[in-house]
């Protein structure tokens, strides 16, 4: 089978999938880039000069990619665009047309498009091969409402297959589109985000007293709840410190700073792959105090480095975190429950060690997990190729 994966964001999961698929099929992985989109999640592409259109990546120019894809037959290419400014809209439109023509000329059996942006609509409309689309979110948490996008609606209204990563998203999708043909809908989880291992620094040791929140800070991420729980914890254990790392929405920043305890620190900046890896390596515990969520990649990243996670029991967190075994699930928006979970974990370092020993088993099994994911994905591809070609 000849497979193309076209990914706009979500490289941390789609690249791993492509790597393991390439053990069973001929796979070309296309990652969409621009001058401001070179440092992708799990993959730094700032290694060679890229020109608008399709660029074959010389892996020796990319330490991260070269390490992860060593002895792997996967073909990796960048679809490079001009900066996303209206002055370049016409030029970028021409780039897309040329790219679509080149992909069509390659006669792929199936194209798996990955991403949330409406910019991918042109690929759906122009590519001739059977297509499936992988959505990581079908709910707009910032607006607290189902995702309404031209891209999602187009995929629903055409013959395109749809892949989701959690049963929670599967149920939410069918609530939004109750008449959708189930033959076209599949749920396939992802494994650990292995490409981050190339950023691992063995000289960085765990700081048992560090609580970490990382990622963009939005209203639904529940950071104010974490701060209140940490205040209670800090009164009992003043050695514990909190790090909140990630770009903060401007309307939240002043509130967070005003209520920040003395032993807490805010790192308000875009975190690159090395920053994220360093912070996770240092953390004693990673916390996800979300008030709303559907699909989060944080467990797949934190588990990669053997970390205990305390997360709100919302969305798909319960599908990836075994409560009391690989982490702890708490009621969302419940300061006291989050405090009790933190207090239990930090009351004895053996509590952290016990969880980490369980989590490390996931890393040991990571290859097998991804091979299973790849096999499930191949089954979905074959099903959709047959269905669409016979339509």
In short:
By secondary structure, the protein is of the alpha/beta class.
Features:
about 400 residues, alpha/beta, Rossmann fold, eight-stranded mixed sheet, six-stranded parallel sheet, 14 helices
Q: How many E-type strands?
A: 18
Radius of gyration: 21 Å
Q: Report how far the terminal alpha carbons are from each other.
A: 20 Å
* Class from secondary-structure proportions: alpha/beta
Please identify which CATH superfamily of the largest domain we are dealing with.
Answer: Glycogen Phosphorylase B
The level of helicity is 25-40%
Write down the CATH class of the largest domain.
Alpha Beta
Largest sheet: 8 strands, mixed
Number of domains: 2
Q: What is the strand content?
A: 15-25%
CATH topology of the largest domain: Rossmann fold
Low-confidence runs of at least 5 consecutive residues: none
Number of discrete helical segments: 14
Instruction: Give the CA-based shape.
Output: globular
Strand order of the largest sheet: 5-6-2-1-7-8-11-12
Overall average pLDDT? 93
- Tell me which CATH architecture of the largest domain applies here: 3-Layer(aba) Sandwich
Walk me through the structure.
- The chain is of the alpha/beta class.
- The protein folds into two domains: 216 residues, Glycogen Phosphorylase B (Rossmann fold); 169 residues, Glycogen Phosphorylase B (Rossmann fold, 3-Layer(aba) Sandwich), CATH 3.40.50.2000.
- It has 14 helices and 18 strands.
- The strands form four sheets. The protein has an eight-stranded mixed sheet with strand order 5-6-2-1-7-8-11-12, with helices on both faces. It has a six-stranded parallel sheet with strand order 15-14-13-16-17-18, with helices on both faces.
- A hairpin with a 4-residue loop joins strand 9 and strand 10.
- Helix 1 crosses helix 14 and helix 7 packs across helix 12.
- It is globular.
- InterPro entries: Glyco_trans_1.
- GO terms for molecular function: glycosyltransferase activity.
- It comes from Filimonas effusa.
- This is Glycosyltransferase.
- Keywords: Transferase.
């Amino acid at each position: 089978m000849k497979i193309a994966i076209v990914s706009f964001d979500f490289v941390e999961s789609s690249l791993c999938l492509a790597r393991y698929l390439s053990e069973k099929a001929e796979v070309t992985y296309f990652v969409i880039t621009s001058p401001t989109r070179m440092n992708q999640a799990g993959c730094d592409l700032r290694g060679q000069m890229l020109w608008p259109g399709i660029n074959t990546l010389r892996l020796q120019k990319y330490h991260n990619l070269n390490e992860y894809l060593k002895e792997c037959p996967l073909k990796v290419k960048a679809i490079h665009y001009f900066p996303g400014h209206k002055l370049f809209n016409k030029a970028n439109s021409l780039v897309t047309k040329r790219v679509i023509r080149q992909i069509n000329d390659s006669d792929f059996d199936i194209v798996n498009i990955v991403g949330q942006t409406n910019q991918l609509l042109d690929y759906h409309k122009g590519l001739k091969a059977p297509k499936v689309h992988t959505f990581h979110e079908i709910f707009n948490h910032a607006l607290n409402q189902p995702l309404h996008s031209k891209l999602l609606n187009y995929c629903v209204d055409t013959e395109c297959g749809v892949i989701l990563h959690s049963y929670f998203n599967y149920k939410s999708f069918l609530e939004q589109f109750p008449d959708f043909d189930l033959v076209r809908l599949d749920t396939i989880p992802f494994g650990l985000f292995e490409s981050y291992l190339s950023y691992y620094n063995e000289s960085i040791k765990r700081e048992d007293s560090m609580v970490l929140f990382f990622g963009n800070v939005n209203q639904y991420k529940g950071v104010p709840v974490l701060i209140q729980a940490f205040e209670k914890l800090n009164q009992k254990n003043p050695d514990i410190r909190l790090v909140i790392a990630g770009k903060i929405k401007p309307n939240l920043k002043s509130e967070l700073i005003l209520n920040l305890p003395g032993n807490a620190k805010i790192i308000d900046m875009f975190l690159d792959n090395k920053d994220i890896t360093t912070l996770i390596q240092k953390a004693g515990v990673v916390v996800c105090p979300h008030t709303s969520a559907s699909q989060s990649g944080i467990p797949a990243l934190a588990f990669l480095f053997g970390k205990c996670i305390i997360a709100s029991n919302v969305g798909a967190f319960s599908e990836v975190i075994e409560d009391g075994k690989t982490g702890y699930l708490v009621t969302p928006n419940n300061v006291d429950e989050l405090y009790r979970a933190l207090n239990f974990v930090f009351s004895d370092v053996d509590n952290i060690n016990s969880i980490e020993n369980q989590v490390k088993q996931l890393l040991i099994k990571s290859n097998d997990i991804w091979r299973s994911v790849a096999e499930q994905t191949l089954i979905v591809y074959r099903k959709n190729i047959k269905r669409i070609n016979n339509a």
